[in-house]
Amino acid sequence: MQTHTENKQHIDSATPRHIHLSGICGTAMASLAGLLQLQGHRITGSDKAAYPPMSDLLHSLGIPVFEPYAESNLDSRPDLVVIGNALSRGNPEVERILDERIPFTSMAALLHEEFLRGRSPLVVAGTHGKTTTTSMLAWIYQTAAQKNPAFEPSFLIGGVAENFHSSFQLRPTSPFIVEGDEYDTAFFDKGPKFLHYFPDALILTHVEFDHADIYADLDAVKTAFKRLVNLVPRRGRIIAYDANENVTDCVARAFCPVERYGFSDSAAWRLRNLRYEGDLMRWEVLHDGAPWVEFEMHMAGEHNALNATAAAALAFGQGVAKESIVAALASFQSVKRRLEVRAQIAGITLVEDFAHHPTAIRETLRALRAIHPGARLWAVLEPRSNTLRRKVLAADLIQSLRQADRVVLAAVYQQNRIPEDERLHPEEVVAALNAAGTPAELHPDADSIVKTLVPQLASGDVVAILSNGGFDGIYEKLPARLRERFPSNAADK
Which of 55, 118, 223, 381 is deepest in the core (most CB within 10 A)? Predict the structure, then answer.
């Protein structure tokens, strides 16, 4: 296994600069900070609050992070400031930057100028699955590099890939694998980040309505993805999921070859015979109707088999040998905060997952059902993403949560920042779940959840903690309280 330290490779920049990242603790921003440091730049950063895993990553890199945002964070007068997309007018650092005309840019624009230009960008995009799929693709290329060093990739991932213990890598070779985020770029550039990346090849996983704070409706989301597809050159290739009508619409006018993947008979890359054998998930893949390979992976979930197949298809089309792909997926170790087992205490398994959308919640719970078929499955959800905090997908959220045996809902994160007529009302979600036969309860915060939940848990239970943020420290508080309740099991994971 490679470690983060072993992955480091210093590549001198022609003109080292002091670059400050405002909003540095975002997954993409922290990764960019690491890449810039490898080029020889002096990096500082600031954020409202820092929490793992990116705070741990930045600490390991020795990059100073100032909290909270303040004009004084820019007293050193950096040569360039990268402004994260969470910052807007009124932020003290933004105001000083504009007042004093300190040079500034966005994360996506700087990534293109410093790293993607002159390389071969391989972009993974979609409403769901892009972080895991990007990590899989990077590991496939890293494994292939054992036989052909030209395949060794640079990458930027919106999460910490366990195989690398990092979310970034910089190499002088051509392939640069990047997670293509459809979220907006900055307060001064409201287009999606991925329009800066100009892919040579593209994976498109799913297209659904998401990011309700910046997209008015599904058509607006689809327009963004159609624009991305339109940037792929004729010599390029698109690997696209075949069981989503929105994906079909988005790739319909592509100028390059489009290869579909999925379970249907018509898929160019067809999955079949998906099964679980112990802690392994196995499935077969047919290519253009002919048997191609059988994969095995230490992960669960139909969605992860699809993600892996997409990564395999793109890599094979770029010249990676089948044998390297098989070996890479067999040794793939997932991503931090994606079905990550945080603790196992007294037979109770606590799993963390980055939940941002009802579909992602559904697939996470389905995967846990598959690997823990006899368990009582709890879903502990903090509605925190800009989509989950709104009522627009409330019906879908209720249906997704019904995959669990018990549901515990936290109050909506910063609900007062959502327009009143758009807000999700968690009490209505809880009432609907109870009426449908899924026991559910609502609590104001993590402390209340922990206090109420711990006495109810028993050996064999699986608890899925679902949030795309820190969830008020529940990932530490819940295991700590369980160890107090079961002191003889305090040495458990």
Answer: 381
